[in-house]
Design a protein that fits this description.
Helix content is 34%, strand content 21%. By secondary structure, the chain is α+β, with helices and mostly antiparallel strands.
């Protein structure tokens, strides 16, 4: 006759064995489905370069069930409205402009750079940091006296 400790270990061992077997079967089914169809891996299928692919350029949700999409296929673009029940082509948009090369991008030099309206004004330093405290104090007294003279 088996004591209580032996029964507990037998129960735990059986539970672990069956649990590992079930997890192994689930993983094996997932691996087989991914390897055979390529649908579960999210894009592991091969794409023919001559067939244009569809890409979502942008989307605008109008409400929880209606959304407007800009779809690109090669150089063509389409405006599409999708709802829970149907999908409608709203219009065909202008073709995509050619890619911008590095040579076409204008170079902005430091003197041409414009500051945004919210940037603080750049105040040139009139008192260099190399001066000691006494020289800076004297300069500030001169500014105060000159501002009161005006």
């Amino acid at each position: 006759m088996m004591n209580h400790t032996g029964a507990l270990w037998q129960y735990l061992g059986t539970f672990v064995l069956y649990t590992l077997g079930a997890v192994g079967l689930i993983y094996g089914a997932y691996w087989y489905a991914r390897r055979s169809s390529g649908l579960l891996s999210g894009g592991s299928t091969k794409v023919d370069p001559q067939v244009p692919t569809l890409q979502v350029e942008s989307s605008l949700p109008l409400d929880p069930r209606n959304t407007v999409y800009v779809i690109r296929s090669g150089s063509e673009r389409f405006l599409i409205a999708a709802s829970g029940e149907e999908t409608n082509l709203l219009s065909k948009l202008e073709p995509v402009a050619s890619e911008v090369t590095v040579e076409e991008i204008p170079v902005v030099t430091e003197t041409e750079r414009l500051e945004p309206w919210f940037a603080p004004p750049v105040v040139p330093r009139t008192v260099p940091r190399r001066q000691g405290f006494g020289a800076r104090f004297a300069q500030s007294i001169q500014w105060i006296v000159s501002s009161r003279m005006k």
